[in-house]
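Exercise 7b. Backbone tokens:
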């Protein structure tokens, strides 16, 4: 079941992130897609906030940042500067995939070959002051269940 949502304001993007975070589980993988200024980092920041983690920032220059939440830890990837999946695997991505952290990855389209078969994809369109169209696509039963719980 694909879910379509609209975020006209940053507060509405916060609500979407909080909906996603309500069902967060150890080992979860969320792949974020969207252009510059679409709101990927904003979504991660509010997701992390809901889990009680420190303020999330874009890890563009470090590729990955780690945040400790109250019950779950988060690994936040930014693949904007990566040319391909090989560069991601060179930093030990296999170990991250095997970890119990929640993984949120910005610019997933740059490393699509590295994405796990079971995952949640969040596609965001729009930028600036425009409303954002958010499409949530589940891959796997666990992610189907998450998508079904999201309130429109």
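Sequence design result:
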């Amino acid at each position: 079941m694909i879910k379509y949502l609209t975020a006209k304001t940053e507060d509405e993007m916060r609500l979407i992130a909080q909906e996603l975070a309500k069902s967060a589980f150890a080992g979860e993988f969320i792949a974020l897609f969207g252009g510059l200024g679409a709101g990927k980092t904003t979504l991660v920041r509010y997701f992390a906030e809901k889990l009680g983690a420190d303020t999330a920032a874009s890890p563009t220059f470090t590729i990955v940042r780690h945040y400790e939440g109250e019950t779950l830890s988060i690994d936040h990837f930014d693949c904007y500067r990566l040319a391909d999946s090989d560069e991601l695997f060179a930093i030990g991505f296999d170990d991250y995939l095997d970890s119990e952290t929640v993984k949120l990855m910005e610019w997933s389209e740059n490393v699509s070959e590295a994405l796990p078969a079971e995952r949640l994809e969040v596609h965001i369109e729009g930028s600036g002051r425009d409303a954002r169209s958010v499409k949530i696509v589940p891959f796997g039963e666990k992610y189907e269940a998450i998508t079904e719980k999201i309130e429109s």
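Instructor comment: The first strand starts at residue 3 and ends at 7. Residues 10-22 form the longest helix (13 residues).
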